[in-house]
Amino acid sequence: MKDNEKKPTFLENVDMMVNDTITKINIDSNIAKILKTCRSVLQVKFPVKIKNQIEIFHGWRAVHSTHRLPVKGGLRFSTNVNQEEVEALASLMTFKCAVVDVPFGGAKGGLLIDPKKYLLALWDPIDGEVDPSGVTYAFAKAAKTFGGKYYTNTLVTDTKQKNDGTWNVITDKGNINAEIVINAGGLWAREVGQMAGIHLPVQPMEHHYLITEAIPEIEAMGEGKRLPVGTDFEGNIYFRQEGKGMLLGTYEQKSTPWKVEGTPMNFGHELLEPKLDNIQDRLAIGFKRMPALEKAGIKNIVNGPFTFGPDGSPLIGPVPGLKNYWVAVGVMAGFCQGGGVGKCIAEWIIDGEPSIDVWAMDVARFGNYASPQYGTIKSSENYERRFIMTFPNETLPKGRKQKTTALYDRFISKGAVMGDSFGLESVLWFANDPKDAYEEPTIKRSRSHDYVSKEVKNVRENVGVTEIANFSKHEFQGPDARKFLDYVLAGRIPKPGRICLNPMLTPKGKLYGDLTVACLNENKFIKFLRHHNYFTKCKNTF
Ligand SMILES: Cc1cc2nc3c(=O)[nH]c(=O)nc-3n(C[C@H](O)[C@H](O)[C@H](O)COP(=O)(O)OP(=O)(O)OC[C@H]3O[C@@H](n4cnc5c(N)ncnc54)[C@H](O)[C@@H]3O)c2cc1C
């Protein structure tokens, strides 16, 4: 745009986008973008007319060539985060996002929000909605076209591993022998896992949204026009158009774990009794911020369960220690995350490793300490924090102290700030004393900086000791120990009496982990690695 050209206001921008809702979209490129967002907090939903339009080629590529999708885009509103922080977040998004001012309101085609309540917003042009059932069947149909088989109304009653490592999947209609089993049991993931003797730390949580009666502003927009979807993180609400009314949802501040003892096999996705008391405060915020909603009557209140993992992310991949048994569970935002999870698992099985680093979703990031009870406590914590940002230097309080070392009390008395490392409490840094031992969540330089800098200087000029209880330690000994390590590690193996960092690569050359290797003598080595289970995972590749 030239300098003297008048920039369209945000309202004009929104209007242009809303008016231009019928856009021809090549899903080939857009699906890729959607998949890239799978680890972000976005809801990805598109209204799709499902009629043979999704075809799967070579396992995954979804290509849309003939149908038109109304893409509305989405806005994430901010009431208190400044532009710098929003821009920092926007830069993390892998698709085009723009930070926009908020001089817009309930005008025609615009949003129904009260602009005075917000500072700015993040505009995501490819946000939208889908019809979940239609999309699921489109993918199933596409899979069938390429030789896949699926059986509806078929209950899996057991999974039994045979001596050859394959699995017998026992159903009410007969047995299927499978080389690999993937537990994608959703609400029943725990029950399906128990059939194979594993206890997954996932927990269904109750979730509410309401749908309003028709809203005059939306009726006035005319056919074929849609409002962008919206998320208000600080208000803890999300909203989108539903027919001629609006849908307003919230992640309750006090979560309600559902069926802690297990999901009944005969549960048929019936809706649960709404608990208005749990959502009233958030609805009040929503009504204040979108006055049109308060005037409209409430048509329906929905309460339904969906499954969370301990840190809010899915648990996917091969289960350590159980051959040929995979999981894709705790997928809490099925349409935001489902495509990416499916793609990664397919790549992992077919190519031996996913094309992106999936450690944040890898089931191996949890060990035996992550019991079902732990899953309930942590999943509740994450549900309540669904729209709350967790900062890089922030440690969450629930489900802590699964394991401590003998030095724990002494560290605390010396002002240690503790973190959780694979269930073990370990020192992150030392403050001056216990009272001073706290962190302030930030995306900037944290208050630990000066303390750590003193520690570093001290170690450099004097001597330091570090506790490495949170590292896995493996000893390799024998005449071929050096040869073996040289084969599995990419760096130079140290000489006797020396220690060094050494990367381990995946078969495709990606970084698997950064290990510390010490050579005690020519036939004896020790390796240290921070994530215990990661090495178990690495070992599977030997
Ligand atoms: C009120 C509400 C609103 C939501 N809003 C959104 C949203 O806006 N965006 C979004 O992305 N997500 C949303 N979700 C979440 C979304 O529905 C879930 O994330 C998604 O359904 C999870 O998919 P899944 O395939 O992992 O599990 P599920 O949908 O639970 O599917 C599991 C499947 O496994 C089958 N199964 C289980 N056990 C057995 C067995 N023993 N034998 C045979 N089959 C078995 C089940 O029949 C089922 O078909 C919402 C959920 C609720 C309740």
Main features:
Alpha-Beta Plaits; 25% strand; 4-stranded antiparallel β-sheet; FAD/NAD(P)-binding domain; binds flavin-adenine dinucleotide; 542 residues
What can you tell me about this protein's structure?
By secondary structure, the chain is of the alpha+beta class. Among the domains are: 1-47; 132-202 and 311-376, FAD/NAD(P)-binding domain; 472-541, Aminomethyltransferase beta-barrel domains (Alpha-Beta Plaits, 2-Layer Sandwich), CATH 3.30.70.1400. The protein has 14 helices and 24 strands. Strands 6-7-5-13-14-15-12-16 form an eight-stranded mixed beta sheet. The protein is globular. Residues 8-69, 103-109 and 538-542 have low confidence and may be disordered. It binds flavin-adenine dinucleotide (FAD). Flavin-adenine dinucleotide is lined by residues 43, 45, 155-156, 184-188, 192, 207, 209, 302, 304-306, 331-336.
> Using only CA atoms, what is the Rg?
26 Å
The N- and C-terminal alpha carbons lie at a distance of 56 Å
Give a count of the beta strands, DSSP E runs of length 2 or more. 24
Tell me the name of the CATH homologous superfamily of the domain at 132-202 and 311-376. Answer: FAD/NAD(P)-binding domain
Overall geometry? globular
Q: Tell me the strand order in the biggest sheet.
A: 6-7-5-13-14-15-12-16
Which CATH architecture of the domain at 132-202 and 311-376 would you pick?
3-Layer(bba) Sandwich
Q: What is the CATH class name of the domain at 132-202 and 311-376? A: Alpha Beta
The biggest sheet, with number of strands, parallel, antiparallel or mixed sense and barrel status, is: 8 strands, mixed
- Beta percentage is 15-25%
Distinct ligands, ions and cofactors found in the model: flavin-adenine dinucleotide
Low-pLDDT segments: 8-69, 103-109, 538-542
Overall pLDDT confidence: 81
Strand-pairing-aware structural class: alpha+beta
Helix content: 25-40%
CATH topology (fold) name of the domain at 132-202 and 311-376: FAD/NAD(P)-binding domain
Number of helices: 14
